[in-house]
Amino acid sequence: MKAVGYRSLGPIDRTDALIDVVVPLPNPGPNDLRVRVRAISVNPVDVKVRARSQPESGDTKILGWDAAGVVDAVGADVTLFKPGDEVFYAGDLGRPGTNSEFHLVDERLVGIKPRSLTFEEAAAMPLTTLTAWELLFDRLHVPYGKKGHGDTLLVINGAGGVGSILIQLAARLTGLRVIATASRPETISWVRRMGAHHVVNHRNPLDRELEAIGIPQVRYVAALSATSHHLGAIKALIAPQGHVAMIDDPVSLDIVPFKQKAVTFSWEFMFTRSMFITPDMAGQGLILNEASALLDAKVLISTLSESVRPIEAATLKSAHARVESGTVFGKLVVSGFDKS
Question: Which residues of the chain are under the pLDDT cut of 70?
């Protein structure tokens, strides 16, 4: 089968940064689905793994975690899916990725693809939806579906993939007032479309930006990027007994100054469940099924902003470069193993 991977670390502009390869068709294990991949999306984690994880000598590491496709075969113990089912999922960091014609994934991590979405629209959703859902409901402990409590959430980097769906979840499934950060006309327009009630500029001190709109403090902060840079402003704007949830990798993070406000800090890492095979690992499939229903009901919308094809090294190199540049908003999706 066709796949795209890499054999050595290096910048994305290097000729062999990503290469087209042919690898054996994988056989599903007892709990696996084998999925014929129709579309994938490119996430910052793809870029991070490519920059940090050196394959064994002679091996090709296949990247990619988001996918939408059709179940081709199932393992002996699979009970939730059958061949022909259309699915979407974010996979497992410890297994070969989705940049391949066929892909193996544990059925507990998989959801039924929204019927109303194309494969491209669906492929934009899983990793970021799982991250945002877990951050909002499991880390920040915001009540699902409860309206009217009047608290405020600040989403730093609102136009990114996680921010785009987090804004929707918070604005449409909770009683939170949502403030999103964005700095360019196109990203400001995008976060408003996602449902942000207010937009502030993250190129300026965020505490001053919030003061300017008459909301000097917030109870919740979703720190999705540049947390080290914004830490001083977060200290000023977070309310006493507030809660900060992070997904990025700050070089250093001194949270001692937050002690007097009794602020809680939480990490969100979507791959924790699959990495440690936690007892609630199947929760990710349940989240995706709930999100699928919400997408079909038009409560949520796809965060797809751009779709390109085909799934091959040249296209993915360009996509990785775009993600590295920090100019992508929403989600960039790549589909199909041919140009038609």
Answer: 148-149, 339-340
Distance CA 51, CA 249 (A): 14
CATH number assigned to the domain with residue range 2-125+279-335, chosen from the 4 options 3.90.180.10, 3.40.50.720, 3.30.2160.10, 3.30.470.20? 3.90.180.10
* CATH hierarchy code of domain 128-267: 3.40.50.720
CATH 3.40.50.720 segments of the chain: 128-267
CA–CA distance from 182 to each of 22, 177, 201, 206, 211 (Å)?
A: 41, 16, 5, 11, 16
Q: What is the pLDDT of residue 257?
A: 94
> Could you tell me the two tokens for 180?
């999103």
d(CA 154, CA 167): 9
Q: Write out the residue limits of the CATH 3.90.180.10 domain(s) in the chain.
A: 2-125+279-335
Closest by Cα among 85, 36, 95 to 65: 95
182-194 pLDDT, tens digit each: 999 999 999 999 9
- pLDDT at site 67: 98
In this prediction the pTM is: 0.96
